[in-house]
Design brief:
Length: 396
Amino acid sequence: MQITKNDAIISMNLTKSFNRYALTYTADIPLRCTLTYTQEGGERTEEFFLEAGEDRTFASYVDGYLRHKTAKAALSLTVRAISHEGGEFTLHSFTVETHPVLAEKTFYFENHRYKVGVELCWGGGLSYLEDKKCPVEGLVNILNNFDTGRLIQQSYYGTGDPPYVRGEFMGNSWCYNPVQGGDRGNHKSKLVDVRITEGEVYVKCRPRDWGHDGGTTYAYMENWYRLDGDYLVVDNRFVDFSGYTHPMATQEVPAFYTVSYLNNYYWYDGDKPWTDDALSVKSDLPFWPDDWPYCTFKPKAGNTELWSAFVDDGGYGLGLYTPNITRTIAGRHMYDGSKDPAAASCGYIAPLKALRLQCFKPVTYSYLITAGQLSEIRRRFKARKDEIGNTDWDNY
């Protein structure tokens, strides 16, 4: 089938209830699609995007899946080219099925060391991490989850130029900013898909645009979460279908929030990486936008020991390691020492990488998380320092 900027409509007429649909296809251009189906109250239409490729599969829950919504019948599929150039599209199969709702809010998985919570209603970001060996009384969930911005999650920055319409946050004009959890108004990102297999949780979402109160994006984010002994391993993938031309920007890889109780920020600031050289610490970090230079940590030339951690006064805390980054920012918001994950106070770490988002080209990266005493955190990251290189960034 030849696809252009004009609609190509494929009739379905599948009279079967479903809350998840899947299609296999071949396309030589990225596509914007809409599925029309009946639901209680009448017809509904929802939008989705397809990457170019051969024998690819796309699957999605219907809107309202987490609220136990189902479709009654699939009526039609509309396909349109995103760019001005046309191309070929072949639909190999289209199937529908009904899946049980995994959790209306948080899905938990665990091993002998950690219990981890994936916030399904907030795009599949991480909202809960419990260390079963935590020595601190009253410290259960180490992560802050105050709002849709306070998760361990993907977040990217793009254009602020027309045709994009800028948003606003904290009195500032805001650029294109897909955020996994949702937007500044706490509107939730759409959960697209979830797959639970032995040892791994996969989630996919269509993120919101942070600076727009209720604005969505033309993008998808995917995460693969797996527990491996004392580590949480996270793989990330992002594809933008907006068609915008983006500038070079510093990207949070990832955005990472802890409870306020973990008050001391540690990192390595030397030129002898992975030799157990002395660490650096700041115990008085302010809110990161208030003192950007003081909250910015640029590694010395040749320093590949690019992990950092927030720990308490006894040396217990949570560490994050993202290789091949440009620098890190960290800070404390409304510091009060609270152990409450829903508190407005929090700690923040963001490893940063300078990347230019390119439409239809995936951004992929991985990171490691571990909890424990500071010496244990460092030893574990050293043991697996070569496991993930994030070398795909070198192509941007």
